[in-house]
Amino acid sequence: MQSLLSSSVLANPCTTGSPLFPPTAAKLAAAASVPVAAAARSGAIAAVSRRSASGGRCVVAAASSSSPAVTTAEAGEVPATMKAWAYDDYGDGSVLKLNDAAAVPDIADDQVLVRVAAAALNPVDAKRRAGKFKATDSPLPTVPGYDVAGVVVKAGRKVKGLKEGDEVYGNISEKALEGPKQSGSLAEYTAVEEKLLALKPKSLGFAQAAGLPLAIETAHEGLERAGFSAGKSILILGGAGGVGSLAIQVNQPDTHHHCISIHQLNLHLTFTWPERTSRTLQLAKHVYGASKVAATASTPKLELLKSLGADVAIDYTKENFEDLPDKYDVVLDAVGQGEKAVKVVKEGGSVVVLTGAVVPPGFRFVVTSDGSVLEKLNPYLESGKVKPLVDPKGPFAFSQVVEAFSYLETGRATGKVVISPIP
Ligand SMILES: NC(=O)c1ccc[n+]([C@@H]2O[C@H](COP(=O)([O-])OP(=O)(O)OC[C@H]3O[C@@H](n4cnc5c(N)ncnc54)[C@H](OP(=O)(O)O)[C@@H]3O)[C@@H](O)[C@H]2O)c1
């Protein structure tokens, strides 16, 4: 696995800067460029090919002029090496280094190789980098990143549903804390099990799609585990964050389309959850009947909470939610306020804790990545009725990954911190 991150000792005309990790000759030989089928569509991005050190060809893609983000697939070959952010020691943001010649990961039979167009950061990326999960982490060095949106450029022998050229998105590590991928999404290529991916909604750009997977899977799984159902009320602690902003949306209490302009953030959001009877879409069915959705945030984000669908927006800088008279059937704690959260849950209700202390009857879970959840939500994303919330400070350029981590770690992000385009 070490070789996965290896740098070429040879000068690589596709890259600049110093190698971070030593190469193995075998890996470099094996990783010589592999042809893949052309995946370009009309109006596609320009692809510029150059000779690589191994004699293969590098493909550098430039975004379509029609969108600030990469909007379509690319044609070309898989090079031997790639640009990737990586760290070989735990610590603060200074451990992050841009490796200009990391080895492109190999794929297993059930995996596809994704040419990454956009990635998103989650708090778990920062906690993992700090060494909080080192006991169950994959070995160093690590290319961080769980969330990805990009194009399939190679498919393993047992891959049935995806093919080269497919535009996909997903959370690349099935278990966030138990052996997450060593070669993550903050790179030009990443290897992902087919079952963790879904086709990207065509209506979403790569940057928008990249912000969804881990957060929406967490919101979905949390509400399912809480047994959220028609007529129940919910309080979401941390309503403006990546998870909270999606949890509010999936609790829209009626079947009308909500067209909301958030002028402050220059965003336009539309949401709906049509009634369905399938098991997986029980979430949508249940959320229609939510009797009340409350959420907490600081003063400048109260309008956003309301726009996302909250009936009650609680300013945590002015009020203690636990001192208010209202009680809720479900409390989703995305902040780490477990002790207070249990004070506002009704008898027999559920307190879903995503971080911090767990006080009975609260319970905690760690999200499981599942492409089928994204697939089932895709029609609503595809139609534009549900949209992701990308923090307006982004998307961050690939060269600004350290700054993006710093911003995420302020704990003040609104929606998702996205990196795009890549590279
Ligand atoms: N267990 C799991 O599987 C799982 C999955 C995903 C996430 N998580 C965890 O859940 C937490 C939230 O994740 P995230 O991605 O939503 O984080 P995030 O996007 O970084 O959250 C940032 C948001 O938190 C809000 N916030 C901070 N302090 C607050 C407070 N005291 N009250 C209300 N809101 C507050 C901020 O709003 P203001 O600026 O208004 O303060 C900001 O908008 C993280 O600790 C993450 O590690 C766990």
Automatic annotation (TrEMBL):
SUPFAM superfamilies: GroES-like (SSF50129), NAD(P)-binding Rossmann-fold domains (SSF51735). It comes from the Eukaryota. Pfam families: ADH_N, ADH_zinc_N_2. Keywords: Oxidoreductase. One of its GO terms (biological process) is response to cold. GO terms for cellular component: stromule. Belongs to the zinc-containing alcohol dehydrogenase family. Quinone oxidoreductase subfamily. This is Enoyl reductase (ER) domain-containing protein. It comes from Oryza rufipogon.
